[in-house]
Amino acid sequence: MDWPALTVSLTLATLTTLVLLPLGLALARWLAVTPWVGRPFIEALLLLPLLLPPTVIGFYFLVALGQGSPLGAWLVASGIRLVFTLEGLLLVSVLVNLPFMVQPIQRAFAAVPHSLREAAWVSGLSTWQTFWRIELPLAWPGLLAGMALTVAHTLGEFGVVLMVGGNIEGETRTLSVSLYDKVQGMDLQSAHVMALVLVGVSLLALTLVLAFDRVGQRGRALQER
Amino acid sequence: MSGLQVQLYSSSPIRLQAEFDCGAGELVALVGPSGSGKTSMLRAIAGLWTPADVQGCIRVDGQSWLDTAAGVHLSPQQRRAGLVFQHYALFPHMTAHANVALAAGPGWSTADVQALLKRMGLDALTQRRPAQLSGGQQQRVALARALVRVMPTPSSAKASPTPPAVPGVLLLDEPFSAVDAPTRQTLYRELAALRQQVSVPMVLVTHDLAEARRLADRVVIVDAGQTLQTGQPSRVFASPRNARVAELVGIQNHFDGRFYKDKPGWARLRWTQAGGGPEAIDLTVVDKNKIDDGTPVTWVLNGEQVDVLADASTPALGDAGATRLRCRLVEVLALGEISLCTLTPEALPAQSITLNLTTRLLERLQVDAGGWVQLLIAPGALHIMPVRETLA
């Protein structure tokens, strides 16, 4: 078992989820209730990481941050290193995980009947109070589902990690990358353990997602009764 | 100026021409078919809907909630509108008590909210969530949540025996449509009792004429975004202003015709075949000098004021001014004590009159479907309206 790799994986998963939660919440709420002609394009953009090979994302990331690009040059001049660092890995992980966080939350907000917002307004609640006291408690299962999916997906990410983070022990070598190394080195015993950990975590996360979804559905059923 | 005044005009996204008012403690029903704009009018009062090009004003107890001329447009939060939504829109994650407490202002303590819920017969259910309540109970919670927005705060009520009136309105959007019939009867009674205690303007939206007639002090007939007629239910139902109102309030027996002046004080109503054939019947009516000679009109025959006589009967002295009309009884639908009868005049066989006759009367006249009777139509049984101006 490669403990430093497990630590990197868990750190990356936790940080990705924490950074993505407020970002995803804001995006999801906006997409769920704002009628706008450009919305499908934004939604397609958010879903793109699901379809693109991770290598494509990793490649563009490297190009954008490499010394050849203005952004990369500026970063080097500022002393910020993103390629082959945990920070860089976090940045790309946040981008790749956007659909996993945004989708469930957006669905949860869209499922809150608009009449409840209106009822809150005529009851004297401001838009902000309505969000905190009515919408967020009702969309809560969607938030939990988004978080569980993000954690599971970050732990399992391989291609992007390898391209952007490289394979630096204790810094960017995650569990899935370490697993690849072990198989290459014919250390199947260690590979088995790590594969099992990844399977277990993913299964747990998916179970939680489905359980939260059921809670959400029950909530909606109550409103329709 | 107390009470609610509404004057709204717009042309998009829907055409709106709404003019009505509602005094403090009065209950006004907006009645019309679905899609007529009555709910939009209610939502406009609450501030939940504003057409882009709206002109006009909404005033409550002299306070402007909307005044396009003065640039006033209060948000829903700033208006004190207690709105009962059609499906109640209770917050599903909160208890009945929390639903009401959320809408209560700072003048309401937990005990005050509890007392209100007790008055609504909900004291045993305050800690239940909406899903654990029946439809009627949910409706009462929704009503309580709307009431706390418009009732004087209990603290101010303690301070003076006559608490200052809150400039608010109670708005009810088809509040009885989602409950079963027995519950509805109970809720009707409760609404009537509530009116003794709360004196704010109340506006009820309904498509149910019987409900409007039963609950409202005045009805406003709404069609295609326009308020067509306002008045006491009995008056509007007895004398609709035009053919469309007559149709909307469900009046049977309305026909086309033309109005001709006769000897002073009297006129002839010429009832013609639909499509304009040569056949016609002249009915004697009273000339109130409101309609010009030769005007096309629509008219309503009030079946309750028509006498049905045996075909063999001969004109009598008391008939003066009344028109005799020989009719064939085409169809008789016995509905217990009442039979729904369809009759066609001999001179205008393409027209048909619907009358609710007692089964006893039919037995006495010894007439069945296919037989003949005579109708004695007094001038008072006819209500004549000019043809409704076509809308531009």
How does this structure look, described?
The complex is a heterodimer of chains A (225) and B (392). Chain A has 225 residues and is mainly α. Chain A has one domain (3-52, 82-224): MetI-like fold, CATH 1.10.3720. Helix content of chain A is 81%, strand content 0%. Chain A is built from ten helices and no strands. The N and C termini of chain A lie far apart (52 Å). With 392 residues, chain B is α+β, with helices and mostly antiparallel strands. Chain B contains ten helices and 21 strands. Chain B has a six-stranded mixed sheet, sandwiched between helices. Chain B has a five-stranded antiparallel sheet with strand order 2-1-4-5-6, with no helix packed on it. The longest helix of chain B is centred in the middle third of the chain and has 17 residues, at 181-197. Chain B is elongated. The model of chain B has no long low-confidence stretch (mean pLDDT 88). The interface between A and B is medium-sized, with 20 and 25 residues. Chain A: Part of the binding-protein-dependent transport system for molybdenum; probably responsible for the translocation of the substrate across the membrane. Chain A: Residues 6-209 form the ABC transmembrane type-1 domain. Chain A: This is Molybdenum transport system permease. Chain A: Belongs to the binding-protein-dependent transport system permease family. CysTW subfamily.
